[in-house]
Write a structure and sequence with these properties.
The complex is a heterodimer.
Chain A (H helix, E strand, L loop, with lengths): L1 H4 L6 H4 L16 H16 L12 E6 L5 H12 L3 E5 L13 H10 L4 E6 L4 H8 L4 E6 L5 H15 L6 E5 L7 H9 L6 E5 L8 H10 L2 E5 L2 H7 L5 E4 L10 H7 L18 E3 L20 H20 L1
Parallel strand pairs in A: 1-2, 1-3, 3-4, 5-6, 5-8, 6-7, 8-9
Helix pairs in contact in A: 3-12, 4-12, 5-6, 7-8, 7-12
Chain B lengths: L2 H4 L5 E8 L4 H5 L13 E10 L3 E9 L5 H10 L4 E6 L2 E5 L6 E3 L21 E5 L4 E4 L5 E3 L14
Antiparallel strand pairs in B: 1-3, 1-4, 2-3, 4-5, 6-7, 7-8, 8-9
Classes of the chains: A alpha/beta, B mainly beta.
Chain lengths: 325, 160
């Protein structure tokens, strides 16, 4: 009987226990099975959104966003409401006790006392989510902790690759832009390490190259990667990759504003690059973009970034239902 | 000048030898001093004494107290030339340090935006030791710290 039941993806919410009650702090916390279960539910959400309605009625999700956010905040909020959860949100730290100097420790304790079933945290400090998970008995989902990680973005990024290509195994991906201060690049790199025959190219000026800790992880996992900082080589490698993942300069994380000004506008992706690219190259971006991605690309089939943003809702509905189901 | 002319041998306690010159204060910051501030304990620091092996060195002698193996492991990780002997009834036990798997507290994370550097949070830094690449990794922010940089990250402590 149960074998028949498993044919309906919605049953995964009750039968899959890999994510239930789990903190999602790093993309390294996820297994391939976790990701594939999320993808199945995210697919099902698209086919049958009504099946998810009020599934988590009686749960309370707290959104604690101590840093600006548009897509992540709203997609988590929408996902929680679709699932029938009560939502507590602290969005503007200037009007909360945080502005009076309240610690994250005390804020988490307070939110927990309001009966939060899960806490979704965005915070400017690296490691804030791990710390919050040690303070909280409710699961904590990292929605971005400074420049460290953004694991739920990695989930929707991988989902985009899976939807567009049909498979993640064998993908050759180039990350272009500010890789040093990016939190999406480490998370997606860690998650890609779960797949077979992956190759990653980190394309950035030396000053913005990927952080050493990401390299160490990939080396440990045996993932092939290269760092490319020579502008002449960039044009050549465009023909080798299936996906180009572009990030903006993280202005807010540059310790020295003059470095930001110097590097600003140092890379822009325009439709001209498509001549050099592999056919079917997918262009991704976690958004918001500034001037690194030309709007002229938007109407090309290579622009995956709006679907990518849209699928943030599917994947977050799936994730919340599996963590709280 | 022979160190023995400065300080007598001890029958019970810990001798931390071959510390790089003028680094004994930093070594003390790696020891839980609260634990040894007992009235019967004395502590002597020798700075910049001659060393056949290294030219100059510091020595710390702690009378009537054995520092923990964990403390010794961390001292030897930060200063690989250091040696630690435990003395009991004049007998000397040379301790062979192990590379610890984890270090809690004692070392400040160099990443300014790490949550452990927020003075409002009651939190101790925590590191996993990645022996294969000779580095620590902050468990909170993932920042890597090469072994030879650890010494400069031991926080200053008020005088005892």
């Amino acid at each position: 009987m149960w074998a028949l039941g498993r044919e309906f993806p919605i049953d995964l919410i009750h039968t899959y226990r890999g994510l239930r009650g789990k903190d999602i702090i790093s993309a390294r916390d996820l297994s391939r099975e976790d990701l594939e279960t999320i993808f199945r539910l995210a697919d099902y959400y698209e086919k049958s959104p009504g099946s998810f309605k009020n599934l988590l009625k009686g749960s309370t999700v707290a959104l604690l966003f101590i840093e600006p956010s548009t897509r992540t905040f709203h997609s988590f909020e929408a996902a929680a409401r679709i699932l029938g959860c009560e939502v507590i949100s602290i969005r503007d730290p200037s009007v909360s006790s945080i502005a009076k100097g309240e610690s994250l420790h005390d804020t988490i304790k307070m939110i927990e006392s309001y009966g939060a079933s899960a806490i979704i945290l965005r915070h400017p400090s690296r490691g804030a989510s791990l710390y919050a998970s040690e303070v909280s008995s409710a699961p904590v989902i990292n929605a971005g902790d400074g420049s460290r990680e953004h694991p739920t973005q990695a989930i929707l990024d991988l989902y985009t690759i899976y939807r567009k290509r049909g498979s993640i195994d064998g993908v050759r991906i180039g990350f272009l832009g500010d890789l040093r201060f990016s939190r999406t690049v480490p998370s997606l790199s860690y998650a890609l390490a779960l797949y077979k025959d992956i190759e990653i190219l980190y394309i950035a000026p030396q000053a913005l190259q990927v952080r050493r800790e990401v390299e160490v992880y990939l080396e440990e996992k045996g993932v092939r990667y290269r760092k490319i900082s020579d502008p002449t080589e960039i044009r050549r490698v465009l023909g080798e990759i299936d996906v180009l993942y572009v990030t903006r300069l993280q202005k807010e994380r540059f310790p020295d504003p003059s470095d930001y000004e110097r590097l600003r506008g140092s890379y822009t992706v325009t439709p001209e690059i498509l001549v050099l690219a592999k056919q079917g190259l997918g262009i991704m971006h976690p958004l918001p973009r500034v001037d690194e991605l030309s709007p002229e690309l938007d109407s090309t089939p290579n622009a995956w970034y709006f679907d990518q943003a849209r699928w943030g809702l599917n994947t977050r509905v799936a994730l919340l239902s599996l963590v709280l189901g | 000048m022979d160190e023995h002319l400065l300080v007598r041998k001890i029958d019970m306690g810990t001798v931390i030898d071959h510390i790089p010159p003028w680094k004994a204060d930093s070594v003390l910051r790696l020891i839980d001093l609260e634990n040894i501030r007992r009235s019967d304990i004395s502590l002597v620091i020798l700075h910049n004494v001659p060393s056949r092996k290294y030219g100059r060195k510091d020595i710390i002698k702690i009378y009537k107290h054995h520092i923990s193996h964990e403390e010794t492991d961390i001292i030897c990780l930060v200063y690989p030339t250091a040696t630690v002997n435990y003395i009991t009834d004049w007998k000397v036990e040379k301790y062979k340090p192990k590379i610890p798997e984890r270090i809690v507290g004692r070392i400040r994370c160099p990443e300014i935006s790490c949550i452990t550097n927020n003075p409002r949070e009651p939190i101790k830094p925590r590191y996993r030791v990645l022996a294969s690449i000779k580095a620590l990794q902050c468990e909170y922010c993932d920042t890597l710290i090469e072994f030879d940089r650890i010494a400069e990250l031991v926080p200053q402590r008020k005088a005892v």
